[in-house]
Write a structure and sequence with these properties.
The protein is built from twelve helices and five strands. With 397 residues, the protein is an alpha+beta fold. Strands 1-2-3-5-4 form a five-stranded mixed sheet.
């Protein structure tokens, strides 16, 4: 059998139950009705057996069921085993499964039918002692069951607390992961637009060194402004991370899409822009405008990367109650007469921009689709726009 390790608390409990069994045997010795034919030798042997039963209480943790069975059987022969038997029955009820407890209880109450059958012929003192014995056994079983149910309740509450703590840590980890994803998406959207402008104009200067001075100066100015703006955007994004909740830089709105388009035009992209009406632009919720701005920004960035010499058509339409539609379309480079741009190598990309746009649209409750449409590449998005001006769609990060 495995060794049972006892803590100080376990030793204190075992010693306390041993003292209980011994004191119970000593106190009840005067009230135990002994047979008239029991001599002094049998009485001494009975007391020795009772003392051994009390000492056997220390074995209750290693062999609880075996000890209970032995003490109950010995109790039918020895008169000082009631105390140890009560401790053993209590131990089984408090720590063993229901089925085992039921078998031990059946063994303890097995003499009860015989006692009830012989009750009319039993003298009053022996009948009272027997009834007291069965009542004490029932009390020990009940107290043990109560202790077990209480311990199970405490364990259940502890398990729930640990589970709640684990779920809280998991929610915190998920929140941190979402924050990191939002940070990465925001930095991608903000910086990819600026850096693509830098790459386009730097490539033009590299492959066209003989361009007129005015064109070179204009390209250099765009490079300088884009670099400064990229650094400023980066500082603002980092500032948002360091700032308290609720602080941060102003977020783009639907009205800022026109400024974005004009900025791309100055950088050399040919854009046919069909804006929404002025009333719709002014009434657009902040989250909706921010998502629309990021979609157009990423679409123009991708157009500069993959089709820098191809005109782009941007169309935004819709209004409250009907949703906001966004369509960005450009001819595929292999479908144009001039083919790919010769201003430099293709601008590298991580391939995550369109995935990020799909996530933004889904978070806002909308949808986004993109792909080849005849000779064009088409990106189309729909975002919900509630008719109630005070109820915004879900934030898009």
């Amino acid at each position: 059998m495995h060794h049972v390790h006892r803590t100080r608390r376990d030793w204190a409990a075992d010693i306390g139950l041993f003292l209980f069994a011994a004191c119970f045997a000593a106190i009840s010795s005067r009230s135990i009705p002994l047979p008239q034919d029991m001599g002094p030798g049998w009485q001494a042997a009975d007391q020795v057996v009772g003392g051994l039963g009390c000492a056997a209480v220390f074995l209750r943790r290693r062999w609880p069921v075996q000890l209970a069975v032995a003490l109950l059987v010995a109790g039918s022969l020895a008169h000082y085993m009631t105390g140890p038997a009560l401790v053993a029955v209590f131990t089984v009820a408090a720590g063993r499964p229901w089925r085992v407890t039921a078998w031990v209880a059946a063994l303890a109450f097995a003499p009860l039918p015989v006692f009830l059958y012989e009750l009319p012929e039993t003298d009053e003192s022996r009948a009272g002692a027997a009834l007291t014995y069965f009542a004490l056994i029932a009390g020990a079983l009940g107290w043990g069951l109560f202790r077990r149910s209480r311990r199970q309740l405490i364990d259940s509450l502890r398990e729930r607390a640990e589970l709640a703590e684990a779920e809280s840590a998991l929610r915190a980890a998920r929140a941190t992961q979402r924050a990191r994803e939002e940070i990465a998406r925001e930095m991608h959207d903000v910086l990819a637009h600026r850096l693509s402008l830098l790459s386009v104009h730097a490539g033009a200067l590299e492959y066209n060194p003989g361009a007129p001075p005015a064109e070179i100066g204009r390209a250099a100015g765009v490079i300088r402004d884009s670099a400064h703006q990229a650094l400023q955007d980066l500082r603002e994004v980092i500032g948002v991370l360091r700032a308290p909740v609720g602080d941060g830089r102003p977020q783009p709105t639907l009205g800022d899409v026109a400024r974005l388009v004009e900025e791309a035009r100055k950088a050399g992209t040919r854009i046919d822009y069909e804006p929404p009406g002025e009333a719709e632009t002014g009434a657009a919720p902040a989250a909706l405008g921010r998502t629309a701005y990021r979609i157009v920004q990423e679409a123009l960035t991708n157009a500069r990367k993959h089709a820098p010499d191809v005109p782009v058509r941007v169309r935004i339409s819709g209004g409250p109650g009907g949703g906001l539609g966004i369509e960005v379309r450009n001819a595929l480079p292999d479908a144009t007469a001039g083919g790919p741009s010769s201003a430099g190598p293709a601008i590298p990309g991580a391939g995550q921009g369109l995935i990020g746009l799909g996530e933004r649209a889904a978070l806002a409750g909308g949808r986004l689709e993109h792909g080849r449409d005849g000779a064009d590449f088409r990106l189309a998005a729909w975002l919900p726009w509630p008719a109630d001006p005070h109820r915004e769609p879900p934030p898009a990060g």
